[in-house]
């Protein structure tokens, strides 16, 4: 009978055991510390300093956070960005994830032809660079030379066209939908994989019980992939509150028109690195980054305690 | 309660034929077991009766009504699956009532049926539990309960015991037999386990390569297998086969001779000199005691002792092995030379087409 691991380690000399642990765990701990923990701690530390015009840094405690949330000059753009970010997240939750679930449900139907083709086509935008996606949609939706107005005219809906990306009222939702278009493949793939995990006999049992495809999806498949859907929601939350690249590539760092598409990522960028007349302010930028970190942390904790604990993964 | 009629049923996937012209009549209240090696088409046949797979040709009638175009729920069947297929996110009660909700059974009636099935299957304590909290045997009972509450015309069982351990399999087998006695319903039951088939069935359908080899009562299959396949499939250990030829035919008797065993006379009129035959004798019918018309001799090579009997693996003069079951305490020793005899009625003879040669011994 093979000896159990705990027996082997118990008999080992202390020094040898420590050496072994260092050998196996050391590299991962070192890399994780260097590239994840250290930057995080350093950013938090930097957010408690302020720099004077001579370049010297002084410890100011939580004063930066007071400024950020208390001074109207800072708090107004911050809350604007936070609100926009919530809308950005809401559009993803209400459009991207339901469409992803629906596509996964359609893909998992028995007897569907060309499954591989559909899967690839719908996943393709996810693999494109955000810069290219942003640039393409900028061109498509351009009121001057974009194909969108022509395409709408061709089906008789020309009067509906508006320069969506340029209007304060619609720019944010338009950008959110572009992001949805690009990333809908991810929830689709994750949920599709979860759906494939459901045993065929369970579906057969539901058919014998008299359910059609639609009811099978809602009463059997959907409840069983709920854990995956909640995982997808969390991934969406984290990705949305860290988003930056699409806004930057379509609207630039000023996130126009009139900051209508400004989200925390672009707000942080302007604060930290500066933009046009605004000077870069690393200490204030670190404060913004720290607040973003805590927003995501609070969101994740709420999810873990309120949702995750009530959801059960089903073993088949 | 209903009878089931299957006529010229075919199933093809592309070029492969899974079922080939299957014809079967099952009477009202009959317990029929489909048995055969894996890939013989028995599960496909069951799924086609259930309506989960479509037919490539032929008809299925349940209670005299053609059901080919009906959905599974409209056929008046209920099915118990090998993996139980309980809905993991519903408790036992919901698992049982779920299907009824969609077939328009009123709530009070649903509750009555669940209570009755729970009492019958001793599930009352478990109604609020989830499948994950149940043992394999309990899950199996819930799956059967879910079938019972549908009050189907025909119950379909797809290898329902193969996920249970050996002890539970025996007790659940007895429960299923009792259930059939109680409900008096028509049951079609698929298994690859011939013990289940023999113990449960009113009639057994032996299938092989998409065709029905023989339909009959368990003991008929055992004592008078219609062909070589059934002879070799039913019984454990499998029947011993000896190659043979007809040496001479005289006065309604054929002289059967072959390497390794003593020639004997077979009272049949249907054979000619030179016909190739296969002689089959079950290990449990080979004895060392009294002389019989059939005798085979060899050197014992290996003995498996089971307690109530032993299996002797014996090598014949022509270097082939055969198995004999020796009862009692006088187990043969390896290396011993022994002769085994069989009575005339225990000797099965099959012709070149693998079909049973009927003899006057059969009567």
TrEMBL record, chain A:
It is found in: Cell membrane. Gene3D superfamilies: MetI-like. Its main location: membrane. InterPro entries: ABC_transporter_permease, MetI-like, MetI-like_sf. The chain crosses the membrane at residues 20-41, 86-109, 121-140, 146-165, 172-196, 216-241, 253-272, 284-306. Keywords: Cell membrane, Membrane, Transmembrane, Transmembrane helix, Transport. SUPFAM superfamilies: MetI-like. Residues 82-305 form the ABC transmembrane type-1 domain. It is a multi-pass membrane protein. CDD domains: TM_PBP2 (cd06261). Pfam families: BPD_transp_1. Belongs to the binding-protein-dependent transport system permease family. This is ABC transporter permease. It comes from Bradyrhizobium iriomotense.
From TrEMBL, chain B:
Residues 4-234 form the ABC transporter domain. One of its GO terms (molecular function) is ATP binding. Coiled coil: none annotated. Keywords: ATP-binding, Cell inner membrane, Cell membrane, Membrane, Nucleotide-binding, Transport. The keyword Protein biosynthesis does not apply. InterPro entries: AAA+_ATPase, ABC_transporter-like_ATP-bd, ABC_transporter-like_CS, ABC_transpr_MalK-like, ABC_transpr_MalK/UgpC-like, Mo/tungstate-bd_C_term_dom, NA-bd_OB-fold, OB_MalK-like. It holds the Pfam family OB_MalK. SUPFAM superfamilies: MOP-like, P-loop containing nucleoside triphosphate hydrolases. NCBIfam families: PRK11650.1. Belongs to the ABC transporter superfamily. Involved in beta-(1-->2)glucan export. Transmembrane domains (TMD) form a pore in the inner membrane and the ATP-binding domain (NBD) is responsible for energy generation. This is ABC transporter ATP-binding protein.
């Amino acid at each position: 009978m093979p000896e159990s691991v705990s027996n082997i380690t118990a008999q080992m000399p202390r020094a040898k055991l420590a050496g072994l642990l260092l050998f196996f765990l050391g590299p991962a701990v070192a890399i994780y510390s260097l590239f994840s923990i250290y930057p995080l701690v350093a950013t938090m530390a930097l957010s408690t300093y302020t720099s004077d015009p001579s370049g010297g840094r002084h410890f100011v405690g939580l004063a930066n956070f007071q400024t950020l949330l208390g001074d109207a000059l800072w708090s107004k753009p911050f809350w604007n960005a936070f609100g926009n970010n919530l809308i950005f997240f809401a559009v993803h939750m209400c459009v991207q994830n339901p469409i992803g679930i629906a596509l996964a449900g359609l893909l998992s139907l028995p007897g569907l032809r060309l499954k591989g083709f559909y899967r690839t086509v719908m996943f393709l935008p996810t693999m494109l660079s955000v810069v290219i996606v942003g640039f393409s949609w900028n061109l498509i939706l351009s009121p001057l030379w974009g194909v969108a107005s022509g395409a709408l005219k061709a089906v008789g809906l020309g009067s509906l066209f508006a320069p969506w990306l340029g209007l304060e009222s619609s720019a944010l939702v338009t950008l959110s939908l572009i992001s949805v278009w690009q990333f809908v493949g991810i929830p689709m793939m994750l949920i599709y994989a979860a759906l494939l995990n459901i045993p065929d006999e369970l579906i057969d049992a539901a058919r014998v019980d008299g359910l059609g495809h639609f009811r099978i999806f809602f009463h059997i498949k959907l409840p069983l992939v709920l854990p995956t859907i909640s995982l997808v929601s969390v991934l969406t939350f984290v990705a949305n509150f860290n988003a930056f690249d699409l806004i930057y590539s379509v609207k630039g760092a000023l996130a126009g028109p009139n900051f209508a598409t400004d989200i925390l990522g672009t707000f942080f960028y302007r604060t930290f690195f500066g933009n046009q007349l605004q000077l870069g302010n690393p200490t204030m930028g670190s404060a913004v980054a720290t607040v973003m970190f805590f927003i995501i942390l609070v969101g994740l904790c709420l999810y873990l305690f309120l949702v995750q604990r009530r959801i059960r993964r089903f073993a088949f | 309660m209903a009878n089931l009629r299957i006529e010229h049923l075919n199933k093809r996937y592309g070029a492969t034929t899974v079922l080939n012209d299957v014809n079967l009549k099952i009477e009202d209240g009959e317990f029929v077991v489909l048995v055969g090696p894996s890939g013989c088409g028995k599960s496909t046949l069951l799924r086609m009766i259930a309506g989960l797979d479509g037919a490539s040709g032929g008809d299925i009638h349940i209670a005299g009504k053609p059901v080919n175009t009906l959905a599974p729920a409209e056929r008046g069947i209920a099915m118990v699956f090998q993996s139980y297929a309980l809905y993991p996110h519903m408790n036992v009660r919901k698992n049982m009532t779920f299907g009824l909700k969609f077939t328009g059974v009123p709530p009070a009636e649903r509750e009555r049926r669940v209570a009755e099935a729970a009492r019958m299957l001793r599930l009352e304590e478990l109604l609020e539990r989830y499948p994950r909290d149940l043992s394999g045997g309990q899950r199996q009972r819930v799956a059967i309960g879910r079938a019972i509450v549908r009050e189907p015309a025909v119950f379909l069982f797809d290898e329902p015991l193969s996920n249970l351990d050996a002890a539970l399999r025996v007790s659940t087998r007895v429960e299923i037999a009792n259930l059939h006695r109680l409900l008096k319903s028509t049951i079609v039951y698929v298994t690859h386990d011939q013990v289940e088939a023999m113990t449960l069935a009113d009639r057994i359908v032996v299938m092989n390569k998409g065709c029905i080899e023989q339909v009959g009562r368990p003991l008929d299959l055992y004592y008078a297998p219609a062909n070589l396949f059934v002879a070799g499939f039913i019984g454990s250990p499998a029947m011993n086969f000896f190659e043979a030829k007809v040496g001479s035919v005289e006065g309604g008797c054929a002289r059967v001779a072959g390497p390794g065993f003593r020639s004997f006379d077979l009272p049949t009129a249907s054979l000619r000199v030179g016909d190739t035959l296969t002689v089959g004798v079950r290990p449990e019918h080979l004895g060392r005691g009294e002389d019989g018309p059939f005798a085979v001799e060899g050197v014992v090579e290996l003995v498996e002792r089971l307690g109530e009997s032993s299996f002797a693996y014996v090598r014949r003069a022509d270097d082939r092995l055969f198995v004999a079951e020796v009862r009692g305490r006088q187990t043969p020793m390896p290396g011993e030379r022994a002769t085994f005899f069989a009575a005339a009625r225990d000797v099965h003879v099959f012709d070149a087409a693998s079909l049973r040669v009927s003899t006057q011994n059969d009567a």
